[in-house]
Amino acid sequence: MENQNPLQNGALEGAVGNGGRSGDGSALIFLGTGCSSAVPNAMCLIQPSDPPCQVCSQSLSIPPDRNPNYRCNTSLLIDYCSSDGIRNYIIIDVGKTFREQVLRWFTFHKIPRVDSIVLTHEHADAILGLDDIRAIQPHSPTNDIDPTAIYLTRHSMDSIATKFPYLVQKKLREGQEVRRVAQLDWKIIEEHYDKPFVASGLKFFPLPVMHGEDYLCLGYLFGEKCKVAYISDVSRFPSNTEYVISKNGAGQLDLLILDCLYKKGSFNVHLCLPQTLEAIKRICPKRALLIGMTHEFDHHKDNEFLMEWSEREGIHVQLARDGLRVPIDL
């Protein structure tokens, strides 16, 4: 892997602000850019069509680290270097493919640990990797280690307590054996832009969005020198949230990372490409990177289309890809 460079994919994947050279300053690392079921789609491989799905069948012949159409669950790692030179690693969401992402991209980018976790919501593609956090924590058969801070809403906390009671309980029942599990320090946050929190030195502003009309999800705004909004699961923006991240509202974003499930049509719980591009035109960031794609998207071909769209509309937009590292001045 040392001799490969899987991250070369066009000018729009360069530094944001004065991000500097690779290894210097802060950076955003895309651990996953795919939908909940990930890409390749398993059905395309076990029951192939005629002709076969080009995007999914490609995964059988090209190593995933050199295949931008191989996509794990959406997740972002923030490699945050503060002004005093202290470096912290903050991850947004730990979904079903978290262990694979660690093996592939932590090793490639030499990420030694995770200092904080921030969750957008409690769906499977955002939290089912929580058990695997123990694999990147110091080994202790008695769980005698410093816990990793994890920031989430009360609703997510209640859901996780049902799914993973052993990660949440503080005391063992009488006679219960000690078992090694991930050690997490649960920190409840509020679903409001006016209620920011600080994770490992970086301030986050929650961005409530609709993920279907019956479900509130969070995106996040962060960065002082460069403003970044990360919104992975959205079907509609409440007006207050859109105002906060819009050029004609509270101020222009340097980078918008935005949900984009399908190439055509619409979907009830996610934005698809037509709605994603309309939202980008309204919000008008300096640059946008798309995430959450299904196997409908062919990375290189669709980025060619987006390059033409970008030149026409004056907003740089591209599909992100797993393993992409974007230097950024936070």
TrEMBL record:
CDD domains: metallo-hydrolase-like_MBL-fold
Transmembrane segments: none
InterPro entries xref list: Metallo-B-lactamas, RibonucZ/Hydroxyglut_hydro
Residues in Metallo-beta-lactamase domain copies: 89-292
Protein name: Metallo-beta-lactamase domain-containing protein
